[in-house]
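Predict the assembly for these two chains.
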Amino acid sequence: MRISRIAHPEGMAFVALEGGEADGTGATCREIAGHPFGEPEFTGRTWSFDEVRLLAPILPSKVVAVGRNYADHVKEVFNKSAEHLPPTLFLKPPTAVVGPGAPIRKPEWATRVEFEGELAIVIGKPCKDVKRDDWKSVVLGFTIVNDVSSRDLQFADGQWSRAKGLDSFCPLGPWIETDPDFADLTDLPIKAHLTHDGETETKQDSNSNQMIKSIPEIVEWVSQAFTLLPGDVICTGSPAGTAEMVPGDTIDVEIPGLGHLVNPVEAY
Amino acid sequence: MRISRIAHPEGMAFVALEGGEADGTGATCREIAGHPFGEPEFTGRTWSFDEVRLLAPILPSKVVAVGRNYADHVKEVFNKSAEHLPPTLFLKPPTAVVGPGAPIRKPEWATRVEFEGELAIVIGKPCKDVKRDDWKSVVLGFTIVNDVSSRDLQFADGQWSRAKGLDSFCPLGPWIETDPDFADLTDLPIKAHLTHDGETETKQDSNSNQMIKSIPEIVEWVSQAFTLLPGDVICTGSPAGTAEMVPGDTIDVEIPGLGHLVNPVEAY
């Protein structure tokens, strides 16, 4: 099932998207009563996809991100091997989250702002100390995240919270796919297409098979550190190919089966 | 006014503490209707301080912390000068927050766990890009925070989110003092008393006059990076004197005018 959060003519709602094309066109949006965790109940209200606007599919209480989870990205950013710089965890604040289509707003003082297209896990149940084999039992589903990062701030601050945590630096969406078997998660293409001056170039073109820590290992590791709450998001790390974005650009992160997360870049 | 959040015989509530001793003994707890932001309304219900239990005075949507804001602490932890390692920002997750008296739970794999007693700012209004001279207009009040940190994890991970973000690693309290003039904030003693094997020693004995970035500068800096929401907490940095705690110890952070934040340490 595809779950999204929408702005509709009368307000906002969680909905299930039914039917329609891969990009949602023509789908029916069936309103979910209350929250989307557990077995959803439906109110009976529906909208057509074309009359609604997609919002970030969830508002997480925290966003935990795995840094340095792809060896080729470690090399391109830090110029070191992944043995010297193993995966690490960091946090992005909830105020960084925006939805599909919302602008990534770049302050002038945040320079070298790059996209990082990633697979994101959405937690479905309160949990702690989840064993890797049980990871599916605590997951609501999957979506796409763009772990937007000002490289200059990242290196200047040492800690990454500001560089990766500015308002709008966590685009999320377009929706949550709740079927953990929507694809082979160990062999999932991850792409990012950057449009600059009207020309589109595919910058990231990698695969989840390059992850250093696997998805079951990540859920075990993160839940060992932090109690996870329904709606919390885990960003599984960015593959190589990240590049600078400037105001006027558009960035499109694509994961087959999850769709496209597209955001314009604006000056703030 | 002192605002706290309490567990009372029938449930939980925000209350104003009126009268009583400096440590709250004998105070009357007047229930606040709804939330404590803006001019509070009272329900008329009251409890005596002795029949309630203090909880973390607020549940923040995010905890932003200033690292390396006291030169002597930079020296003791990093063995470098503050010119080489200027103040930086990091995030602690909401799930790390516990109240006064609640145990700090130390997992076996989190080694060299130290206390860091700090002054905390609680935000009262949604805000962004606050000018330093306007800082008071967005602040609900002040409390004490213990920025508990596993030094070994901190250095191993590079990013501090795990070392400083484990469940229970953000004791907060005992209450929020809403009068910004409760003391001279530029000359505020900050102490931490560690009880180990029945002996109590004062380990931190410093003063906010040692801060590198002042409170107005911190509010400006943090709100430049992140939209702040009511209840968000800013930890203003730890002075020198931090030391290891082990299960069985009790740590008491004291700031005159704000009281004592006391937490036992337990094995998890």
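Chain B has a mean pLDDT of 96. Chain B touches chain A through 31 residues (CB under 8 Å).
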